[in-house]
Amino acid sequence: MLQLTASHIDSLAPNAAAAKNGRGLVQKNKFVKLNVSAEGDLLFGECSGSGKSNYVCSVDFVTPDNPVSRCSCPSRQFPCKHALGLMYAYADGLKFEQASVPEDISSKRDKAGKREENKAKRDSGELPPAKPKKVNKAALKKKIGQQLEALDELEKLSLSLVRGGLGTANAKTVKDLNDHAKRLGSSYLTGAENELRRLALLLEQEDRESGYTYAAEQLTLLNAFIKKGRSYLQAKQEDPELSPDAESTIEEWLGHAWQLSELKEAGRVSENVQLLQLAFYSYRDEARKEFVDTGFWLELGESRIHRTVQYRPFKAVKFMKEEDSFFSVAQINELYRYPGGLNARVRFEGMLPRQTSSADFESIRSAASTSIADAVKAVKNQLKDPLADRAPVVLLQAARIAQTESGAFALVDESGGTLELGDIYRLPQPTTPLLSLVDPALLEDTDVLAMFEHRMDTGRLVAQPLTLIKGERITRLLY
């Protein structure tokens, strides 16, 4: 029998408004037909709307971890409010009449099943693999030529900034940087385009001391990319058949959008994985001109902290599903890992939720690093690579979180090692002041998920707490 909970349906909704509207349809008794298949894996029905004809909607759970919604309404959101309402009605226990699967859905199921069957046969070798796409060497050579020319121009620009000094930057400098960023995007260097825009934003900050500190770090980042990008592109120019670099982030800097098939071919996929989200937040990224939904997840049974990222362009935000906090365990058939360091970005196509158990909280405890020194060493090793993520996240065991005489907070491990806690530039809101407001019991013998940052002005590492975990209590400080 199909098991649906309101929280699971909420996680499927494209945004909070769609979920609210879906619930409203149930409360207003808008559904004139509610049906379920004999196998219990298909919900379908009709919902009255503003037009003469009812909207025909369905949600197909033939693949439980990746349900497919369909509706005759003109909405571009999936699931639409009618499909969501159908699921809320089922979760609320409304009466669904058993009926045979409609012919059009049966036909679509058959086609999908055939595709999956052929895919399984290719994976097993029973059918020959799909022919790889032929590389258009002439087009690739032209593209690489454009990218190398763009890198040369970027190098000249960054050197002129260094020679002139950041203190001489003005409104014209910022305009020139933004204009050049557009040219980088036209030359297929979208990663560099975003980071150059970020540099322009830093030089516009009213707090010039802070802005220039991070601007200097941004210039270092861009110069490292110029050197590594040029070397990689030249190698690609010599060998057009060269496989994508699946170990570093250089491909993303060069504008490559990883396909799941490429990640699988590179061995960057794990099967039957269970993830527990420990932190989630969304923020507005003016450099990318996108909203960014970011989640940090512990892989149960392992010590890895993964990162999920969804980009929602400002222009298309109302058409895209907005991610949200998730409090159950996500059971995933195939987890794809992008190249990266301590918190590699991951992606999955579908999942089945389950309630957390005592064993899951024990996994959190065993995954947390008991030594601040070891955690700091791992963070520093990542930061040695200038193109790596500058704000790694680590799970730490704390004997206590203590407040110093100056009012600051520090994490103390069981051997007496200490780590300064403070709010960092890269997070959208402060959390450290909240430590004085939480239950004092949470500050003793607790696990802390923290994001690290190297402060160039002081030369020290500082960590901002994202989440406190004690026993079976998870207290998220960032939202």
From TrEMBL:
Which parts of this chain are annotated as the region Disordered?
A: 105-136
- Top-rank taxon, per record: Bacteria
Q: Which residues lie in Basic and acidic residues bias regions? A: 105-125
Q: Does the keyword DNA-binding apply?
A: no
Query: Which key words tag this protein in UniProt?
Result: Metal-binding, Zinc, Zinc-finger
UniProt xrefs under Pfam families: SWIM
Q: Which InterPro entries match?
A: Znf_SWIM
Q: SWIM-type domain spans which residues?
A: 55-91
Example of a GO MF term: zinc ion binding
According to UniProt, the name of this protein is SWIM zinc finger family protein
Species source reads: Saccharibacillus brassicae
